[in-house]
Amino acid sequence: MTEYDFSVFGNVTITGADLNAMSAEELSVLHRQAQYCQAMTEADIDTMREIVSADMTFTHMSGRRQSREEYFADVADGRLNYFTIGIEDPRVRVAGDTATITFTSVLNANAYGARGTFRMAGSHHYRRRGDAWIAVNAN
C-alpha cells in the first residue's frame, strides 16, 4: 500500500502502473501529476499556478505554443474544458532533484470547440523546489 491516496482525484484515472512497485519518490511525482490533472478538470488556476513554473511553455497537439498565463486563461474561460484525464502507462524517472514522467494522456475535453477524447503520448518534467515538485520546461 502506498502513502499516496490517488482516490482523491475524482476526474483522474491512472492505469497500467503497479503503484506498489514504485519508489516513494516516483509515487510523489505521479501524485503531483495527478494533482495537476485534477486541477485542470476543475479549472483550479490557483492550484495549477502552484504546480507549474512561471516560465513554463505549453505546446498543443496542433503545435500551437502558449505561455503559462495564456494557457491558464484558456482553461479559466472554458476555451479549454477538461472533463476527465487518464494517465495511461506512466513511467517515472527520478534523478536527484529532477524527474520525468512519460505517459499517454487520455483527455475527455472540449478543446477550442472540438469535443472528444484525445490521446497524446508525452513527457512532463519536474524539478524539486523545497518539498514540492514543480513542472518545468524540458531543459
Automatic annotation (TrEMBL):
It comes from the Bacteria. Residues 33-133 form the DUF4440 domain. Pfam families: DUF4440 (PF14534). This is DUF4440 domain-containing protein.
